[in-house]
Structures are given as C-alpha cells and as structure tokens.
Automatic annotation (TrEMBL):
GO CC annotations, alphabetized: cytoplasm
Species of origin: Desulfobacter hydrogenophilus
PROSITE patterns for this protein: BPL_LPL_CATALYTIC
Keyword annotations from UniProtKB, A to Z: Biotin, Ligase
Broad class of enzyme this protein falls into: ligase
Protein name: biotin--[biotin carboxyl-carrier protein] ligase
UniProt key word Transcription regulation: no
Gene3D superfamilies in the record: Bira Bifunctional Protein, Domain 2
Domain BPL/LPL catalytic: 20-216
C-alpha cells in the first residue's frame, strides 16, 4: 500500500472506520460544516476507483456529486475494456452524477451525449486552471496533441458514475499492438503545471456541478454540439480511424453529429462514426 500523503499536504482530514470495501480511507468533507458540499473519499491502492464508488453507492453511503479518489489503481478500467496503467501520482476519480429528469433535453443528453458532456465539463474545468485541452472523440483529453486524460462512463439501474483519469505526474509510453498505434501521452508536471491532484479535483467538482446544471437547464443539445465542436481535436484534419469490424481507414474529421457520433468525410462521402476510435493524426 502506498502512503496517502503522496497527494501532498492535507488539512481538515477526518479519519474514520468504514466497511472492508473502504478500509484505510480518508473522508474529506468541507472545512465549513454549515455548507452542503459534496464529499470526497480518498482511498489507498485499489483495483479501480469505480469499485469502492459502486459499493458505497449501492449501500447509499454516498450520494449525487460525491466522489471517490484512489491513489493508485492496479486494475484500472479503460475504454473498450483495456487495462489502464495507473501509477501513484496521477488523478483517478469516480464521480456520482445525478439521474436525469424525464425532459426531452435531459434524455437526449443521457442517451447520446453523456461521455461528451463529461469530457466537455472536465475540459472546461481544466481551462479555468489555465490548462487548454481538446477533446478527442469520444472521451479522451489532449494537451498539445498528446493524451492527458480520459473519461469512462458506467451506468447501472439508472445510476451514473463518471470515471475520470488525468496524468498529473507521469504518462504511459507510446506502444503498438498489431495494427494499432496508441497515441503519445503527456502529464501536467512535464508540461510545467505544478498543481496537486487533490487541488485539481476540488476545482473540477466545483466548476463541474455548475457547468452540468447550466447545460441541462439552459443549453439545448443542438447548441451543446456547437460548444463541443469548438473543443474537438483535429477538426478538418486527416486521421487514422479504427472502425469496429472494418479495420483502419483514413478520413477527415468534420465535427459531431446531434446523436453524439463523429462526423467524418471518407472517400468524399460524409459518414457518422458511432463506434471505433481515432488512432493517430496524419
């Protein structure tokens, strides 16, 4: 087990005893007990931050907007069930989101745009910290064309947990598997940002709740698509795309479709990509 102080200095920490699922954890409530603010649970080494988050949520020990951070993941879950290398020093958080209302707008967000909403909220929050990132469809975050983080959505019985990983102190090396070349990654410390994972997470929770409520209550999904397109990585550029069941192809990224798919131009024809992923940019 790694020392939880890896995250840096702590204030107003309250240690308590919890169930075996969260032994050795730290609750970080608001320093102002009169304010109703989300709880952040900080755990030591875990398979994935999703595991204690789902366990606690199933027992109603955490609620909407509460989150779980782990210092290290031994079996982090990435997109397409890939294992996610998760050493100490980076940010690994699982965040409980609210169940959507029955409005047409909210349903459109949940059914088609949820990963992109999460990516947009994190990108916008990082921008407020001076970290200008772009969104690589559907749920990766890029800094200077290098992967800085990713989003993973899990839903069970209408409950939603958003997994967020950001490379703070280290990044995995470039690797190739079969026809796939996984894009180069970077981390915030290497790019000159001296900020702790906990400080970043506090900021993302605060700014993210405000952004979420603004989107759901004030912004129609079609308008959100325009906001998202401005942050879309490699728009107008040729990229290599791995299409599920069809291998790798070359196409030009045009934008985002209203259903959340990626608009691409391939062989002079416009298509909507619903599954697959962008490998590299030409």
């Amino acid at each position: 087990m790694k020392d939880i102080e890896t995250f840096g200095p702590w204030e107003h920490i309250h240690r308590q005893d919890f169930s075996p699922a969260v032994q050795g954890s730290v609750w970080y409530p608001s320093a102002d007990a009169t304010k109703s603010t989300p709880t952040i649970l900080i755990c030591d080494q875990y398979g994935s931050s999703m595991d204690p988050a789902w366990d606690l949520l199933s027992r109603q020990a955490i609620q909407t907007w509460d989150s779980v951070i782990v210092t290290e993941q031994t079996a982090g879950r990435g997109q397409f069930r890939r294992n996610w290398v998760s050493p100490v020093g980076n940010l690994y958080a699982s965040w409980v989101w609210p169940e959507f209302s029955g409005s047409n707008s909210a349903n459109a967000y949940q059914e088609n745009l949820l990963p992109l909403v999460a990516a947009y909220i994190v990108a916008r929050g990082l921008e407020l910290l001076g970290i200008d990132v772009q969104i690589k469809w559907p749920n990766d975050l890029l800094y200077k064309n290098r992967k800085i983080g990713g989003i993973l959505i899990e839903q069970r019985n209408k409950k939603i947990i958003v997994g967020i990983g950001i490379n703070m102190a280290s990044a995995p090396s470039l690797r190739t598997t079969g026809p796939e070349t996984f894009m180069a990654a970077t981390c915030l410390s290497k790019e000159g940002f001296d900020i702790s994972p906990l400080k970043v997470w506090f900021h993302l929770v605060e700014s993210g709740i405000h952004c979420f409520e603004m989107l759901i209550k004030q912004i129609q999904p079609s308008e959100f698509i325009h906001l998202l397109t401005d942050r879309l990585a490699w728009r107008g550029k040729h990229v290599h795309i791995l299409k599920n069941g069809e291998g790798v192809c070359s196409a030009i990224i045009i934008g985002i479709a209203e259903n959340g798919g990626l608009l691409i131009k391939k062989n002079a024809k416009t298509e909507v990509l619903h599954s697959g992923r962008i490998l590299t940019v030409e």
